[in-house]
Design goal:
With 75 residues, the chain is mainly alpha-helical. It has one domain. The protein starts with a helix and ends with a helix.
Length: 75
Amino acid sequence: MFFGTPYIAPWFTTDAEAIKQIVIALRIDAFNQPGLAISLILAGVLQGMGDTKTPLYSTAFGMWVTRILGSYQQK
């Protein structure tokens, strides 16, 4: 995902600025994928053990605080 993005993005558009933005976004997302996989596995483990509140709170925090604040850009 990190290294292949510049070669795959032109399949979807010919706009150079759009390709540049796609490459930046997907390279940032590539660093997020291991953490996302770990959180999904841990949430499944906790739910399997009967703890449903902890995954709910951690998912809500991750969705509404981490991702929103992490994607906010001030121009």
